[in-house]
Amino acid sequence: MGLDEDSLEYHRTDPPGKIEISTTKPTNTQRDLSLAYSPGVAAPCLEIDEDETDAYTYTAKGNLVGVVSNGSAVLGLGDIGAQASKPVMEGKGVLFKRFADIDVFDIELDEADPDKLVEAVKMMEPTFGGINLEDIKAPECFTVEERLREEIDIPVFHDDQHGTAIISGAALLNAADIAGKELEDLEITFSGAGASAIATARFYVSLGCKKENITMCDSSGIITEQRAAEGELNKYKRQFARDVPEGDLADAMEGADVFVGLSIGGIVSQEMVQSMGDNPIVFAMANPDPEIGYEDAKAARDDDVIMATGRSDYPNQVNNVLGFPFIFRGALDVRATEINEEMKVACAEALADLARQDVPDAVVKAYGDEPIQYGPNYIIPKPVDPRVLFRVAPSIAEAAMESGAARTELDPEAYEEELEARLGKSREMMRVVLNKAKSDPKTVALAEGENEKMIRAAYQIQEQGIALPILIGDGDEIRQTSANLGLDFDPQIADPSVGDYEGYADRLHELRARKGVTRTEAGELIERDSNYFGSVMVEQGDADALLTGLSHHYPSALRPPLQVIGTDEDVDYAAGVYMLTFKNRVLFVADATVNQDPDEEVLAEVTKQTGKLARRFNVEPRAALLSYSNFGSVNNEGTRKPRRAASMLQDDPEVDFPVDGEMQADTAVVEDILEGTYGFSELDEPANVLVFPNLESGNIGYKLLQRLGGADAIGPMLVGMDEPVHVLQRGDEVKDIVNLAGVAVVDAQKE
């Protein structure tokens, strides 16, 4: 099947379309229904009647955008009418929800008269927190947006105009930087003079380009003052008329620094690109075929051609999804009255700045594992980069507050945490730990310091103020890799082959001499094995914590810390814990990595240590020791172990959280089962600490929950060690290293 057939199947599969409405409050009981509707719903109605702004408190208005279109200018399809445009508008709603957690009603209006369109939208103002105008043809779209901005008190944004303007504006900021040119000096040629082109030209002026340096061409050639005087141009085109000789697009491109294509495909030749100035910037954004193909534009010049298109199969895609979801997110969250020029400029600047930062592994994987680094082939962020939400929405909110468009004030730090929570519970939970880490950063040694991921993690850890990282490895190689990655930081390095670390070898020999390790062997281990080096570094107090394991099997990475650092004074066994986050629930799962067949004493110890870990995430633990039986329903050695462990913990005066078992997994996590059938349990709420009876079941269980249950997994976090040590999984991403560094710092703070 081709793309068209696949798309038809995608849309018609039951239920048809791409969106649905779901409830956000419980509707399981008669009480729930009486609160949701009659008679309880009268109370919020009366509150809103007293103060209309309470609609933001008691209804979904503050997170609801209307996507409004008449289908008169659907991208690539033209005037197909309101009904035929509905799949596009539903798709727009999907993007709002996917990227910024904004709910959408798509509104298709069968109306061409701009005055009637305005009146229809005005009547819907009470419903929405904002209006996204979509696929309305020029010049009517200008009239509709201008009037709505004046006549209603919620943000109005015509994405076809401003989306392309903002995203290409971000690209222009970085392209000019790379080309070594100032915005005010750029000679810019536009192909196209429709809504998008005019809005883009206006926006470039807002960024710092000079209006008198912009030459705009329509299908009749250069837009000149002569043509304006002859009455040939509408008022929107007239603002970009220049006092220059008449000519065609080829004339306009000669000597230009920038070409901006918002017209039709295939109208620019290699010769036209060759006629441009040094290191030209070419934004060929016609869809689906650009004004000139990527390969042709690149091949036209010997110097750098910085090229962007509207296509996803080439570098530097100018994709509006980088803008509108996050612009509305910030605008809605400060209850803005409009989306003004200051907010648009803030969006472009935030996107430009983000493209200069290190790119997350997840983004690199999504684009074929090819290196992504700031330069001619990467001047704007990728649409799937989750950081766009955290950079753009706060920038929009701040610009709205500073420009007077906001009706409420936000605390920047609290707002970022709120945004992270929208992307999942795991981000919310990690923010708790990372904030604790930043309050008192500690020194974290990173074994395998020559690994590219470790170097990138060290940069982020230092940049965010989470910890003071020390990279263990060859200093020259680490510095060269850092330079190759374009990371602007001077890493602290411990190079075993350069520094005087004889004391480390002596200490390792002292600790392991009676285990058969000679002084010579100890020296070789310190020089060649960063796991032993890092373990001794932490044991000697030269670092507060250690991360290792990125390129080793878990047992071999764990062995050196166990041999050198060992377990805590009152603990005989370490354990590996995963934090699993669901939409509205957090679980700590132990032991998933260390103890193969624990007895009741080990199970009890693991439970205590996991409870302490939960509290570092501000989670009050409720522990269940799992089995395949409930409270003695099966009696054998396997079921007696967790039962005895639970009894030991209940009798331990140091355990100040509820513990029970043995119990089945569904008993532990389903409230109706726990309270209904087993009301005698020590747990008055479902468990959030699940202790599995052995390593096999723990590893299987957490992976099933992660893969089939849709949980995000953070870990494994090593508990029970005498000093903070965490062993990564092979293949972990940079964000996993950064997260575990935060956990390690909080561990060290506790020490």
Q: Give the averaged pLDDT, no decimals.
A: 91
Largest sheet: 6 strands, mixed
Count of alpha and pi helical runs:
33
> CA-to-CA gap between the ends?
61 Å
Indicate the low-confidence ranges by residue numbers. none
CATH class of the largest domain: Alpha Beta
Pairing-aware structural class of the strands and helices? alpha/beta
Spell out the CATH superfamily of the largest domain: NAD(P)-binding Rossmann-like Domain
CATH T-level fold name of the largest domain: Rossmann fold
In the sheet with the most strands, the strands line up as 7-6-5-8-9-10
Rg, nearest Å: 31 Å
What is the count of structural domains?
Answer: 5
- Beta strands, count: 21
- Estimated share of beta-strand residues: 5-15%
Helix content: 40-55%
Apparent shape: globular
From the 3D coordinates, which CATH architecture of the largest domain would you assign?
Answer: 3-Layer(aba) Sandwich
Key descriptive features of the protein:
single chain, 751 residues, alpha/beta, Rossmann fold, 5 domains, six-stranded mixed sheet, 33 helices, Bifunctional malic enzyme oxidoreductase/phosphotransacetylase, Malic_N_dom
How would you concisely characterize the structure shown here?
The protein is of the alpha/beta class.
Write the layout of secondary structure elements.
Elements: H1 3-12, H2 30-36, H3 42-50, H4 55-58, E1 64-69, H5 81-84, H6 86-100, E2 103-108, H7 114-123, E3 130-133, H8 140-151, E4 156-158, H9 159-179, E5 188-191, H10 195-207, E6 214-218, E7 221-222, H11 225-229, H12 235-238, H13 249-253, E8 258-261, H14 270-274, E9 281-284, H15 294-299, E10 306-309, H16 324-333, H17 341-354, H18 361-366, H19 387-403, H20 412-422, H21 425-439, E11 443-446, H22 452-463, E12 468-472, H23 475-484, E13 492-494, H24 502-512, H25 519-528, H26 530-539, E14 545-548, H27 554-564, E15 575-581, E16 586-590, H28 600-616, E17 623-626, H29 637-651, E18 659-663, H30 665-669, H31 671-676, E19 689-691, H32 695-707, E20 712-719, E21 725-727, H33 734-750
Parallel strand pairs: 1-2, 1-3, 3-4, 5-6, 5-8, 8-9, 9-10, 11-12, 11-14, 12-13, 14-21, 16-19, 17-18, 17-19
Antiparallel strand pairs: 6-7, 15-16, 15-20
Helix pairs in contact: 6-16, 7-8, 9-10, 9-17, 16-19, 17-19, 19-20, 20-21, 21-33, 22-33, 24-25, 25-26, 26-27, 28-29
